[in-house]
Structures are given as C-alpha cells and as structure tokens.
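FAQ: What does the model actually see?

It sees only this:
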Amino acid sequence: MKINNIVIKRLIHDGDERSYKGRFERLKYLLSINSLDEFPAPALAWEYYEEARLCWYSGAFVATIIMAQLAFEELIRSTYRVAKGVRGKLANNKKVDKASFSDLIWEAEQDKIITKKEAENLNKLRKLRNPFVHTKDLRIEGENKITLGPVDFFYQHLKIVASHLIGQSAENEAKFAIKLLCNSFPKISYRLGGI
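And it is asked to produce this:
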C-alpha cells in the first residue's frame, strides 16, 4: 500500500471514529473531577500535570499513571529545590535531586507539606507505577515451577490487554491516578504557593 496524504487522512478519520466513545466518556469523567480554574504550580510539574490529563483523555492508561506520578514528584521536588537548593539535602541526608519519590513523600509528610491521607494516596500511586517502570521476568522456582506476581511483565501486560482474566486493569488504575491528580495536585500546589 502506498502511503499518501489521502491514506493518512483516512487512517486518522477511522481511528477517530473507533475511539470517539472512549474519549467522550473519559473527557466527561475528567471534567466531572477537575476544575478548570487555574492554579499556581512549578513549570515542569504543570507540564506533567497537563500531559497526565491528555494521556487519560487519549486512553493511554499506563502513561496516565506514570505522568501523574511524575507531576506529584516534580511538585514536591521543586519545593525542596527552592527551600534547600538543588544540591541541598533532605532530612534523610539524600540530595534533593537524587531522592526517590518515596523519600520525597516521607519528607513532605514530615514537613507537613502533605497530609497523612495524601501521603497514603501518593504511596499507592507509587506502587501502581512501579510495576510498569520496573517490569521483571517470570520467576522460575525449582522444577519447572513458574511464579507470577504483580511485578512480572506478563501480569502487567494482562492488565492492559486482558484485564478480565486477572481482575485488575490499567484503566482502573489510571482512573485512580487521574482522580488523585485532579483532586490533590491543585490543593498541594496552592498550599505551596506555586513555588
């Protein structure tokens, strides 16, 4: 098949038709949980926030989870960059720009930047994100015994393509991530004054 502008336009049109219902429902959900009011936020954290929302709308569920986590991580990290400097250290003696998301959540909760409930939700988001960015091979134990777990690549794949088989879906995890992002990101950002 020769690729030309007519073929490309037809592919776009066909793809838009197939995905319309999903995008319509996702945008409807997003608008139900998200205020369109502007709020202060660090530049890079804001870009991640916007990309997470675009990923949700587009149906890129794994990307939604990852971008939501990055938005929160950058929001918190930016606060500590301002307060302690890029080479500054957190209470656990880790450098601001080397600290893990887990370290940042802990520090922010200790410093009362986030509430205990927000810390719990951010840790849940972190745990949802981890298996997608740290996929592992199947574990083979003993004589031909294969163990599947939540960090195995096959399990993660099933969440995306056959969630009915395992009772977990990347879409439901992304729905949690986008709801957390839309509800908590502006509140935390306001609390920080958009630093």
